[in-house]
């Protein structure tokens, strides 16, 4: 099963993508997590990506596409994957379509998690992330068992550099301009599904499982 998660920054794409990946035994591919791991490890890709991310802009398509094309051809992707944060532009979506078509494949579901902008800033200001395993928490809506410590791997939880309110507003603008048009793109392909992302985490997941045919 090949799934794309769509939605504004902070809509809950990562939260739901991890649950889908666990339930269906497919890899969770977060381009944001891949960039952050590269920044942490001081790679050339990380150094190139950092200035764009810190400013709330998108990393150029050329850098993003190279890493995604490499990732989907790895062995663990044979039975599918769930993309989180990719594609984010029409050229990225077109490049993905072309790569899949070349392999005789297509996307099964593009799941758009709908959350109004007013809710996003609250979500982002409380977000805490584990740099070790990528797990995401919220101080109020999804707190870890022990404050500051990842339930999954025991790693330290941190505030993402790009979750400051001024950067969040910039990222929301970039989302509306460059990523939201993907909703119509996947609607036209016949694989769009929309869920109400203002419900709590488990309810949203239930709705997603239903649309995936459970
Ligand atoms: P995205 O991957 O779309 O940027 P995340 O999955 O990281 O978003 O979620 C953003 C923040 O909102 C996190 O702190 C997360 O714990 C919290 N969150 C996710 N889904 C919900 C929800 N349904 N209700 C309340 N908070 C949520
Ligand atoms: P995310 O973790 O999905 O919120 O992404 C964090 C940041 O990484 C974004 O604001 C972008 O700067 C960058 N990024 C992640 N995925 C992409 C992508 N598909 N295309 C361009 N930039 C991306």
In summary, what is this structure?
By secondary structure, this protein is an alpha/beta fold.
Can you put this structure into words, describing what you see?
The strands form two sheets. A five-stranded parallel sheet has the order 2-3-1-4-8, with helices on both faces. The mean pLDDT is 95. The protein is built from nine helices and eight strands. It is globular. The chain is an alpha/beta fold and 214 residues long. The protein has a domain at 2-26 and 79-116 and 168-211: 3-Layer(aba) Sandwich (Rossmann fold), CATH 3.40.50. Helix 1 (13-24) packs across helix 9 (201-211) and helix 4 (61-72) packs parallel to helix 5. It has helices at residues 13-24, 31-40, 44-54, 61-72, 90-102, 117-125, 165-179, 181-189, 201-211, and strands at 2-6, 28-30, 81-84, 109-114, 127-130, 136-138, 157-158, 192-196. Helix content is 48%, strand content 15%. Residues 9, 31-32, 35, 52-53, 57-59, 64, 85-88, 92, 162, 171 line the site of adenosine monophosphate (AMP).
Q: What ligands can be seen in this structure?
A: adenosine-5'-diphosphate, adenosine monophosphate
Low-confidence stretches: none
Return the CATH architecture of the domain at 2-26 and 79-116 and 168-211.
Answer: 3-Layer(aba) Sandwich
Query: Which CATH top level class of the domain at 2-26 and 79-116 and 168-211 fits?
Result: Alpha Beta
The residue-averaged pLDDT reads: 95
Computed CA radius of gyration, to the nearest angstrom = 16 Å
User: Which structural class do the helices and strands define?
Assistant: alpha/beta
Termini, distance in Å?
14 Å
The third-level CATH topology of the domain at 2-26 and 79-116 and 168-211 is Rossmann fold
**Which range does the strand content fall in?**
5-15%
Q: What's the overall geometry?
A: globular
In total, the number of strands is 8
Main beta-sheet strand count, sense and barrel state: 5 strands, parallel
């Amino acid at each position: 099963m090949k799934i794309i998660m769509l939605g504004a920054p902070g809509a809950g794409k990562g939260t739901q993508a991890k649950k889908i990946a666990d339930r269906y035994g497919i890899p969770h591919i977060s381009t944001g997590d891949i960039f952050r791991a590269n920044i942490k490890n001081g790679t050339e890709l990380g150094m190139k990506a950092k200035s764009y991310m810190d400013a709330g802009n998108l990393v150029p398509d050329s850098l993003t596409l190279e890493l995604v094309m490499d990732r989907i051809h790895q062995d663990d992707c044979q039975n599918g994957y769930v993309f989180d944060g990719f594609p984010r532009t029409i050229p990225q979506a077109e490049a993905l379509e072309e790569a899949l078509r070349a392999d005789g494949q297509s996307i099964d579901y593009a799941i758009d998690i709908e959350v109004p902008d007013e809710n996003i800033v609250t979500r982002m200001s409380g977000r805490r992330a584990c740099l070790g395993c990528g797990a995401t928490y919220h101080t109020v809506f999804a707190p870890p068992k022990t404050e500051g410590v990842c339930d999954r791997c025991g790693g330290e939880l941190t505030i993402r550099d790009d979750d400051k309110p001024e950067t969040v507003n910039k990222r929301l603008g970039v989302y509306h301009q460059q990523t939201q048009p993907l909703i119509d793109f996947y609607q036209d392909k016949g694989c769009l599904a929309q869920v109400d992302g203002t419900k709590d985490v488990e309810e949203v997941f239930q709705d997603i499982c239903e649309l995936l045919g459970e």
